[in-house]
Structure formats: C-alpha cells, structure tokens
Amino acid sequence: MTRADDSLTAPVVGGLDSVLLDAQLRQAARRIAELEARDSLKTQFLANISHDLRTPLTAVITHAEILRDGILGPLTQRQLESIGGIISGGRQLLDQVGEILTYARGAADQLGLSPTEFRLADVVAQSSALSEPLADRKQLQLTTHVPDDLPPVLADREKIAHILSNLLGNAIEFTPTGGRVWVRAREDVGMFEVEVGDTGIGIDPEHYELIFREFAQVDASPSRQHHGTGLGLTIARKLVELHGGRIWLESELGVGSRFFFTIPYLPR
C-alpha cells in the first residue's frame, strides 16, 4: 500500500476509535447510574427495615418488663434471670437497629442539626454516667475532665451526646479488665476539642481509615471477640462533620487509643 493509501485510511481508524470511546463512556455512565440507584435503594431499605423492626422489638422489651415487675404475678428467681436476659438482649438489639437507622438517614442526607446553647461538661457527665455500668462490669476506671471555665457551646446537644456515647462504648469494649477510659475537653482557637481515650488493645495505623468506614470490622472473622454493626465510628464522623468539625485518632498497639473530635463555635 502506498503512503497516499495510508493517509486515506488514517481518518477512518481515528473515527472508529472515537466511536468506541463514546460507546465505552456511555456504558460507564449507565453503570454508574445503576450503582447509584442500587445504593439509594440499599439506603432506603435499611431505613425502612430499621424503622419496622423498632416497633416489635419495643413490644418484646415492654412485655418482658411487665413480667419482670410482677404485674402478671410472681416469678421464680430463674424465671426472673431469664426475663432479664430477654430485656438485655432486646435493648442491645434495639440500640443496633437505631444505629442502622441513623446511618441510613445520614447516607440519605436526612440528618439535620438543632443547635442549642449548653455546657459541654453537662453532656460529658451525662454520657459518662450512662456508660458507667458497662465500665463497672469490666472494672474499668472511667474519668472525665472538662474545665469549669469553658464557655457554652452552640451545637446539637443530642448529636454531641451520640458522638460521645459511641466513642465511650468503643473505648470500653476494646479495653481489657482493669484498664482506664477517660474523656477530656479543652478550648482551642475557635473550637472545642474533645478527647476520648483508653488503655485498650490499640489500633494498627494501617487500619485508621478502615475503622471509620460503614460496616467495617478490623477483625471480620466469625470467631472475633468484639461484635457490633460496625457503624459507631461512621456515625460519629458523620455527626462531627455535620457540625463542621473533624475527627481523628492516635493509637499504639497494646497501649491504647485516643479519639479526638472538634466542635467549632457556631454563629449566634
């Protein structure tokens, strides 16, 4: 073939390449749209199923409490212990369903803020008091330190409490018997910084980002010692970011972990 013939076929080849590229781009766009639709359906399914599960679970717990309180007649000690197990397991499951529902709302951008003015020390004290029974069960020392002179914070009190509850729950869960868990807060330039630390098993640096992903477990094996939805830290990060803050951790294997999050001053 002559050089002239080559010059005549070049535009045809270039045109075919362009057509193939356009087809590939359209296929990729369709695939992305399908994945986004599936993700949206997954989020909606989680929200629906979580909402539908709460009602029967609450009914189970309520009826078990009626039996425990002797409203329908006295029970033996063994029966009371069995009823106590039902209530405890039901509440644990209800908490997990609540976490899934919160995650689904966050993924669908349905979480909003209702800022009020409050003292950070009050929320820290409340969250610590709720966590004390878990800490006592493992003989952990739980302490708090929030300076009295901290100015009031303008934020969503319920969501700040949710963040603290999730971080404290994690710290207690992963700290061996006899260890320490603490909450500290301080004022920084334009923000509050809160620290939740422990003397637990620690986290490998290569897993720092993994633990903030939804449904992620550092140990995902069936024989793992620690169980849960894998949503606690994902939700904590979402709620912190809703406030315009950030969350991060510092950890050392076998020594412990410290989670930090910030709450910027919101405009009055």
List strands and helices in order, with pairings.
Layout: H1 3-68, H2 77-107, E1 116-118, H3 120-137, E2 141-145, E3 153-155, H4 157-173, E4 180-188, E5 191-198, H5 232-242, E6 247-252, E7 256-264
Parallel strand pairs: 2-4
Antiparallel strand pairs: 1-3, 4-5, 5-7, 6-7
Helix pairs in contact: 1-2, 2-5, 3-4, 4-5
Strands ordered across the widest β-sheet: 2-4-5-7-6
What characteristic shape results from the CA principal axes? globular
Query: How many beta-strand segments?
Result: 7
Number of helices: 5
The chain-level mean pLDDT equals 81
Largest sheet descriptor: 5 strands, mixed
Strand content: 15-25%
DSSP helix fraction:
40-55%
- What are the low-pLDDT stretches, counting only 5+ consecutive residues below 50? 220-224
Q: Tell me the series of helices and strands, N- to C-terminal.
A: HHEHEEHEEHEE
Structural class per helix/strand content? alpha+beta
Distance between the termini: 79 Å
Rg estimate, integer Å: 26 Å
Q: Overview of this structure, please?
A:
It is globular and about 85 Å long. It has 5 helices and 7 strands, in the order H-H-E-H-E-E-H-E-E-H-E-E. Strands 2-4-5-7-6 form a 5-stranded mixed β-sheet. A two-stranded antiparallel ribbon has the order 1-3. With 268 residues, it is of the alpha+beta class.
Q: Care to give the gist of this entry?
A:
The chain is α+β, with helices and mostly antiparallel strands and 268 residues long. The chain is built from five helices and seven strands.
